[in-house]
Amino acid sequence: MKVGAPLPDTHDSWTVGEQDPSDSPAWQPDDQRAASDLAAALRAAIEADHEERIPAFADDSAPAGPRIDDAPDGGMEVAASVLWSRFLRFDAADPRWPDRDRFVLSSGRFLPLLRALLRLTGHDAVVAGCGHGQHPAIETAVGPPGQGFATAVGMAMAERALAGRFGRTLVDHRTWVLACETDLAAGVSLEAASLAGRMHLDKLVVLFDARPSAAAPGQSGSGTGQEAVTRFAACGWAVRRVESADPAVITAAIAGAMRVRRPTLIACHSGTPLPVSSSPLQPGLADAWNDCGTRGGNTRRVWLRRLARHRLRDEFERVTAGRLPTGWQSAWQQAWLQAVRQGTGARKAGSESTLETGRQGLAMLCGLLPEMVTLHSSAGAGIVDALPDAARATGFAERPARHLACGVQEHGMAALVNGLSLHGGLHPVLGASFVSIDRMRPALRLAALMGKAVIYLLTDDGLALGEDGAAWQPVEQLASLRAMPDVAVFRPADAAEVMACWELALRHGNGPSLIALCPRALPDAQTDHAGSRIGCARGGYVLAASRGPRRATLIATGPEVAVALAAQARLEKLGIPVAVVSLPCWELFSEQAASYRAEILGKAPRIGIEAASGFGWERWLGDDGVFIGMDGFGATASADTLYRHFGITAEAVTARVRRRLGITSH
């Protein structure tokens, strides 16, 4: 193998220009010809797929311009053919085999390539929209540039974590990524690459289309991939430059990457688009590609025999199927209620922040659910403070692994969480500050699109950290997150609701769950834990009924429930009976029958209370309702001062209710 000048900060970077006999079995002329024929057949299948799809977009009303799945200009068919025919471990008969290799596209421009590969290897017919993960052989949605790559890093993390728990006899596979320069230039890719290098994820290999012609229009940089190569080398990756489209050279590069004890980036600098023949696929080539799809069948059957004899078979099958352990709910409730009775952990002296109770709940759940793993940012570090020392001290660079501190790399962290969930066998929890949600939104949206049950544990600072100023008071985020389909946003008011929301988040299996926890210490709103569980499961409930015919309904979430209860007490003294409704999850409440919602909200005037934007509250308040909260950004002052300034106090609520009811006398 010809070795070029080493790149900075790595001893595993070189240029591959010739075949090295030590890297792979010696190639014969027939091998070379067969590999080239497979690549040419793949290119023909791509073009055929593209021609089939053109009529669907031939309507004159269809917008002009390129589409995400336009046929690429070619050049990576040889690399893909070598990978799928000689290295990728899979069985088309069971595309969800737990110990299969993961193959991830990080660019939508490779979707035609993937569709062709799936068809040639004997997978079921590819359905429309397969790029969003509906097809069982497609590991993830493509998403914005870099999301696929960062998600693949999470999959490699999951493989390591599960291997540490169940052993290499059950978990021993690789993650492969096909990327282009646009993907690796994205900020999320650099964050994920840094984390992967830090963890030495040696079972992660990226094939990178570094040809100048593959650069996106307007892409900054040299268009040769050199910037990506340099950045990845600095992050601790092994980098290999492939200067030839020769199948033997690519085989040598991939084989060498499989022996390196760090993640590998293979930059494919050369590759001329293959000529396309209009003739049908030759039967011999069709059979050869079909054989690639069945090549892993024997390996899978041997693995199934190992699984049948494994002492952890039942547990492995449970976690890979995504099932929670039998009896976990009763154990969880007993542990929580015991903490409440003892006045420790989840509740102390009747006054505790929901952040404190939430992280105590996380510690309990980590003890009950061995598949639960946590990732947190610097701002979310306090969320994992209650975890046992063993869980907090162990990172994914070691085995077994339950926890990873990601620093300020929240963009990459959120994509990694998606990869952990998509891989299967783990239940990831992300800890971060609410104000950082915009950096995590692309990954959150993809999780919702794919229906992945990831949990975001967010510190809902809001006005509670008033001294930090308006920049750290995300008053608009609750409304924006509630607008995202298939995302359940929980904002619990006290320890009882935190317990219920944790349970609901774990059972919410068709999308992400966000639990917003406030660091401000508040008195418990109730002692009826059973009633709270039932009410939270329906998204909203009457927390405190009125003493007499209801004159108004106070509707609140999170810490503002305490404000509503205090206002209710004041109004009752004035002879104005009002009810208090807690609405911890709008999404669940909206799923209830209209009769239930009408019963809870009542016919009396409705007053909504939330220290956030009022956008969306009209849904529950009606045309004649009143919202008490924020209509702009926050300010810099103590929390108590800001709550008074914005009128989110019991006194201000009492005055607004009286004014709404037309009561002026004392």
UniProtKB/TrEMBL annotation:
Transketolase-like pyrimidine-binding domain segment(s): 352-524
Keywords: Magnesium, Metal-binding, Thiamine pyrophosphate, Transferase
GO molecular function, one term: transketolase activity
GO CC annotations, alphabetized: cytosol
Transmembrane spans: none
Database matches in CDD domains: TPP_PYR_DXS_TK_like (cd07033)
Cofactors (names): Mg(2+); thiamine diphosphate
Gene3D superfamilies: 3.40.50.920, 3.40.50.970
Chain spans, region Disordered: 1-34
Reaction(s) this enzyme catalyzes, per UniProt: D-sedoheptulose 7-phosphate + D-glyceraldehyde 3-phosphate = aldehydo-D-ribose 5-phosphate + D-xylulose 5-phosphate
GO annotation (BP), single: pentose-phosphate shunt
Family classification: Belongs to the transketolase family.
Protein name from the UniProt record: Transketolase
Protein's organism: Lichenicola cladoniae
